[in-house]
């Protein structure tokens, strides 16, 4: 019984992670962007991530420092490391 529950939770987690997609930097590398095209793509991607993260914070009814902290981490995760 526990194995079935664990497998179900693992499948749900995998679906959630894949729905988020790759980070902005990973996507830029996959598309082989460089120079101004890469900078433009990353700027737009970060703006989109900020919008999504703000919406998630509102859904979670966060405010003040909790909202700022959540949004900052959410955007950082979405952008990824260069």
TrEMBL record:
Stretch forming the signal peptide: 1-19
Superkingdom as given in the UniProt entry: Bacteria
Full protein name: Phosphate starvation-inducible protein PsiF
Record keywords: Signal
Organism: Parazoarcus communis SWub3 = DSM 12120
